[in-house]
């Protein structure tokens, strides 16, 4: 899993196996909306890789990043909202912004 701070995205390494010339990536997009607040906006997994738990790994990595960096999070992404509902860990819940 890679993290590109300049592009404000958290994404997996290229998924494999892939057909030649295919460069599909799963990504989670976020944006800082305050000095210590991030909006977790969108997860996207290529169709060929859906149903394999990739979005779940992205959601966990994003929330762990929020905890490690001592940030607050606004959850615009419906999938991350679902993930938090299914994994209501105190370290995640205490960092959520309405």
Q: Kindly state the number of beta strands.
A: 6
CATH first level: which class? Alpha Beta
Number of domains: 1
First-residue to last-residue Cα separation? 28 Å
Task: Give the structural class.
Answer: alpha/beta
Main β-sheet description = 6 strands, mixed
* Low-confidence runs of at least 5 consecutive residues: 11-17
Number of helices: 3
Q: Could you tell me the radius of gyration in angstroms? A: 14 Å
Widest β-sheet, arrangement of strands:
1-2-3-4-5-6
Proportion in β-strands: 25-35%
CATH topology, what is it called?
Aminopeptidase
Please give a structural write-up.
This protein has about 100 residues and is α/β, with parallel strands linked by helices. The protein has one domain (about 1-95): 3-Layer(aba) Sandwich (Aminopeptidase), CATH 3.40.630.30. Helices cover about 30% and strands about 30% of the residues. It has helices at about 55-70, 80-85, 90-95; strands at about 1-5, 10, 25-35, 35-45, 70-75, 95. A 6-stranded mixed beta sheet has the order 1-2-3-4-5-6. α1 (about 55-70) links the parallel β4 (about 35-45) and β5 (about 70-75). It is globular, with a radius of gyration of 14 Å. The termini are far apart.
């Amino acid at each position: 899993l890679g993290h590109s701070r300049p592009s404000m995205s958290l994404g997996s390494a290229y998924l494999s196996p892939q057909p030649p010339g295919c460069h599909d990536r799963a990504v989670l997009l976020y944006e800082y909306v305050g000095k210590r607040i991030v909006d977790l906006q969108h997860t996207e997994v290529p169709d060929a890789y859906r149903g394999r738990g990739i979005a779940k790994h992205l959601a966990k990595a994003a929330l762990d990043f929020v905890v490690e960096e001592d940030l607050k999070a606004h959850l615009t992404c419906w999938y991350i909202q679902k993930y938090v509902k299914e994994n209501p860990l105190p370290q995640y819940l205490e960092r959520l912004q309405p």
